[in-house]
Design brief:
single chain; mainly beta; eleven-stranded antiparallel β-sheet
């Protein structure tokens, strides 16, 4: 109805006071309604349409959920056996006889069963054929041998019931058909006959298979009656019963299948009649075979084993403030190390059940350790609180000569100017270690014969370790004085890139990452100006003589906002 019609719906053509339906009706008879010149309205329309198209293009179609597999598991068997038969056919009127014994050196069997994924139901099929030689007496009493063949096929519905984790019962109901070979002696010579039969067939199989290298199977098959059984001359009836046993060895994995070698035995008995004749026949077979199992072990749909590993979840905090300890490393004895996130939480997955020991470490804090019991397949939560370390630390270092290669100075005296701390001497390699030092800034004096003495200030962390490497120069007249020290803020943290300015000597130095500074000056009186961005500057006056060591510990206070 609206084909080839163009209607303008901008604010100019349709005022807010008008009804849209009335406007459209009034303009319906016009073949073409002219566009108005409201460019702003058209830009709004174009913008809305563009946004709608962009949203449609950006929307990703939801992929369909994958369908579950139709077949959950299946098995296929191929067998080759040696079969023996014995039988009898009698006719009260004609006194006929048939084969007494037969040997089948070639009995070939192929069978398979597949179970559905959603239900314990499936389909089963079997085909067997054998070629053999049969021997029997004719009416003249002469033994004759003839070549015969027998065929059997079946198709059935299958059902399965798991009784135990390693034991299952399978049932079959379907249709079977076949041809039973015979030798008839109603004439002077023997002649071959084939008793054709088909009818309903029932079966049952007991499966013992735990998914390992050994498995066993017992089977039974019963055909209560055969419909349309008989020879070419007339109809009859037939019933069959069969028993079987298998032992499977192997369990070799190949891709998604398991393979077994089979050792099997089968017994089958048939009875029936056709016309005035009655018959029975029994066959046995011994053979070898090969079975391929796809999916789970047939009949052994055991529930999945629970994952024995567990998960350790935890949180690390600073004990003095309760704040999360972000970035702290948590070590698991015998397991991986993890790092706490911004909230101080951590997760250690796939841990073996049992006793689990965890340790958290952070500089300036004593390590926090916990031991928990992790259940199999479970999870456990743990809290680790780091306590600030207030105890003394350790000072280590090396004393070398101011020569190329830095030759070590043995037997140099190292004295920490702190009560209760004994002096030590460097070893042959020039190294030294002093325990129970600090915490905080400590003054260290290093002396060696024929060398200029050195005094240093070292900040030793609580419970931690500080390093001091000293270079000694030869003692000489007119030697420069040494100005050393460190710059820290109100919280005791090093102030990096703090500036030391000496106006009289027109010299400048900056502190390193540890807040330390070092400057050499001739003997004299100097003004030292310490400054750093965002801090209040400090000024000190010092007198130094030749070869003196002046040590400073500078505390810079932040500027008030």
């Amino acid at each position: 109805m609206w084909r080839n019609r163009q209607v303008c719906m901008c604010a100019r053509c349709v005022p807010p006071s008008e009804d849209w339906g009335e406007v459209c009706s009034a303009r319906y008879d016009a073949r073409i309604v002219e566009f108005c010149g409201d460019a702003a309205a058209w830009r709004r329309v174009v913008a809305v349409v563009s946004a709608l198209c962009a949203s449609i293009a950006a929307a990703e179609p939801t992929p369909p959920a994958p369908l579950p597999p139709v077949v959950s598991d299946a098995r296929v068997e191929v067998g080759y056996a040696l079969s023996g038969r014995r039988g009898w056919l009698s006719d009260e009127d004609l006194a006929t006889r048939f084969v007494r014994s037969a040997v089948a050196p070639s009995h070939l069997r192929v069978s398979g069963v597949a179970f559905l994924h959603a239900l314990p139901l499936g389909l089963s099929a079997e085909l067997a054929h054998e070629w053999f030689s049969a021997t029997g007496p004719n009416l003249l009493g002469v033994e004759e041998t003839h070549a015969l063949a027998a065929t059997r096929a079946s198709l059935a519905l299958a059902g399965r019931l798991r009784l135990l984790p390693m034991l299952a019962l399978e049932g079959y109901a379907g249709w079977g058909m076949g041809a039973l070979p015979l030798l008839e002696a109603s004439t002077g010579r023997l002649r071959t006959l084939s008793l054709q039969h088909h009818g309903p067939q029932l079966g049952a199989v007991v499966v013992l298979d735990g998914g390992g290298p050994l498995a066993a199977q017992l089977s039974a098959r019963w055909k209560p009656m055969a419909l349309g059984a008989g020879f070419a001359q007339g109809e009859g009836h037939l019933s069959q019963v069969a028993l079987g046993a298998q032992v499977a060895v192997g369990g070799w994995q190949l891709g998604g299948s398991r393979w077994h070698a089979l050792l099997e035995y089968g017994l089958e008995h048939s009875e029936g009649a056709t016309g005035p004749a009655e018959l029975w026949q029994t066959s046995q077979r011994f053979g070898l075979g090969l079975r391929a199992t796809f999916g789970e072990a047939p009949g052994m749909r055991t529930p999945p084993r629970p994952d024995p590993t567990g998960t350790v979840r935890g949180r690390v905090t600073f004990g003095d403030t309760g704040e999360p300890a972000a970035g702290v490393e948590v070590t698991v004895a015998g397991g991986p190390s993890v790092t706490a996130d911004a909230q101080g939480t951590f997760t250690v997955p796939a841990m073996s059940p049992g006793t689990v020991s965890l340790t958290a470490r952070a500089a300036g804090y004593r390590e926090a350790a916990r031991t928990v019991e992790l259940p199999a397949g479970g999870a456990v939560d743990v809290e680790l609180a780091l306590a600030r370390d207030t105890g003394p630390g350790t000072l280590r270092g090396t004393v070398t000569l101011a020569v190329p290669g830095g030759k070590p100075v043995p037997a140099a005296g190292v004295l920490v100017e702190s009560p209760g701390v004994a002096s030590v001497r460097t070893g042959q390699d020039g190294t030294f270690t002093i325990g129970q030092v600090g915490p905080g800034p400590v003054q260290v004096a290093i002396r060696a014969e024929g060398r200029r003495a050195v005094n240093e200030v070292v900040a030793v962390p609580a419970g931690g370790e500080a390093t001091l490497d000293v270079v000694l120069e030869k003692a000489a007249q007119g030697a420069l004085a040494s100005l050393r020290g460190e710059v820290r803020d109100a919280a005791g943290r090093p102030v990096v890139a703090a500036t030391l300015r000496v106006p009289e000597a027109r010299a400048t130095a900056r502190s390193d990452r540890q807040g330390r500074f070092h400057m050499r000056l001739p003997a004299g009186r100097y003004t030292l100006v310490f400054s750093a961005r965002g801090h209040v500057s400090q000024t000190k006056v010092v007198d130094v003589a030749e070869g003196d060591q002046a040590i400073f510990h500078i505390l810079l206070v932040p500027l008030e906002p």
